[in-house]
């Protein structure tokens, strides 16, 4: 479903080229659970951002279901991202001016979903993550675990093909972390493609396949 | 359509969320709009009245009133000078007349005021529509009241005490065929013109008026005389208001050159009106300038606020971009969000002005009424800078790097 051919990412700093991701090929199948692992600064978040169309390759091509994405414009990619991808961040990244319900509605608003429909779906998703009683709460009024569950519900809002999770338990205690992982694994069981960045080996082992990154080089695929 | 509704919904939500920040701006814009609308309306009303006056001015008879400085031994204008003025300004009428108030007791033994007027040909033309030469003639026109008194009493000395007319009339004005002056009754449809801006009021010539030829006054003029010269000037109707004003000023200047011991005032009422309106007009201009400066400061403040809010909301905007928002939609939402309090402020200011002005601001002869045009102009003047101010976020949104901002958290 996702395929990168001869991809590479670099930038120029003080007239020197810094390679963040050295030339690589990568493909992820539909319904797969892939973890991206590696040390800090190894380029795993960059890879996740490229896969999620939030960043672009400097070399190579990126395909989604054989459709080339790497040449698309910013606003086209934004619409594509909103329609096909969901994101779960380590720091939750909920919009503080929105309630839990409005945060879940937001991605649907940008996909032209009518208001009534998105309200119904947002309530259903809140119920799915066990927070139906927190609909009117602002992020600041929720615990870390609750915020991350709202973030997962938001990621599911447009029924994405792929969910990208960047250290989803990084800011949570063990119990909340386990609950979040259980929720993500449940989504994967239901058929959602899951790509998760983690440096936690135990979490990485839950994935069907792990991609190791070492100083910008893609390592072994298990 | 859904996209536009979403943009408006997001803007409304954010404007309400940050209402405390926007409230002060809204109040400032309301105050600015109120002052701008008020000053524009007042200025326009005065301008409009000015234009009306320009149209009216050539139909008016201008009065040049001469006042003695105390040591004058000659009349403020001689007959020869009048002839010279007539020759210079051929298309202009000079209804020159000297007015002497006198008193006599009527049949009911009441003290009655009468006026002896030494009149020129032009004055007779304007007042009595008389085309006959009069100013050098030996005719006298009399109102019925005073004529009846004279016919009955014949005691002219009581009518003209202390006036130059006394000497002339006392010796020669006898009501019979041999009299030096022939007495003519004033026609019933005669009228005199009173100057009132915008209106020409006609009324029957008073009973208590005696019209004497102009030249008689020069024969008997003494410095003690308390009469008032009214050199009225009727400008040709085809002359524009501006040209007429210039012409009057030239005549005044000429009079002053001839007789510097007098001061010449052009229609005191007109002068007062012009002075007052000029003052109001100046005030309106100053208020307008101040309000524009204030508005610019408000807009600068708003620009600062918008950028401050943008800095605070970079993360939220980055998240929205990450979850599929287009940058142009976010920019549009920010512009609409800024415009909402501005629109509310403008509406309050303009409608407040429209309500307040006609009720509490009044100037002589000027009606100040709400004008849709000025409402629109004020709204545009207030909203355009706000729009431009919020539009400065365009580049910032396009340069926003969501990954950097979200990775920083």
How would the blueprint of this fold be written?
The complex is a heterodimer of chains A (222) and B (409).
Chain A: E1 2-13, E2 16-28, E3 33-38, H1 44-51, E4 59-64, E5 67-68, H2 74-84, E6 85-88, H3 100-109, H4 115-128, H5 144-155, E7 162-166, H6 174-189, E8 193-197, H7 201-206, E9 209-214, E10 217-221
Parallel strand pairs in A: 3-8, 3-9, 6-7, 7-8
Antiparallel strand pairs in A: 1-2, 1-4, 4-5, 9-10
Helix pairs in contact in A: 3-4, 3-5, 4-5, 5-6
Chain B: H1 2-17, H2 19-57, E1 61-68, H3 79-88, E2 96-105, E3 111-119, H4 121-128, E4 139-142, H5 144-153, H6 156-159, H7 164-172, E5 182-185, E6 191-196, E7 199-204, E8 209-213, H8 214-219, E9 228-234, H9 241-258, E10 262-266, H10 268-312, H11 314-322, H12 327-360, H13 372-391, H14 393-398, H15 402-408
Parallel strand pairs in B: 3-8, 4-5
Antiparallel strand pairs in B: 1-9, 1-10, 2-3, 2-9, 4-8, 6-7
Helix pairs in contact in B: 1-12, 2-9, 2-10, 2-12, 2-13, 10-13, 11-15, 12-13
How would you portray this structure in words?
The complex is a heterodimer of chains A (about 220) and B (about 400). Chain A is about 35% helix and about 30% strand. Chain A has 7 helices and 10 strands. In chain A, the strands form 2 sheets. Chain A has a 6-stranded mixed sheet, sandwiched between helices. In chain A, α3 runs parallel beside α5, α4 crosses α5 and α5 runs parallel beside α6. The mean pLDDT of chain A is about 90. In chain B, the strands form 2 sheets. In chain B, strands 5-4-8-3-2-9-1-10 form an 8-stranded mixed sheet. In chain B, a hairpin with a 5-residue loop joins β2 and β3. In chain B, α2 runs antiparallel to α13 and α12 runs antiparallel to α13. About 10% of the residues of chain B have low confidence. Classes of the chains: A alpha/beta (about 220), B alpha+beta (about 400). At the A-B interface, α2 and α3 of A face α1, α11, α12 and α15 of B.
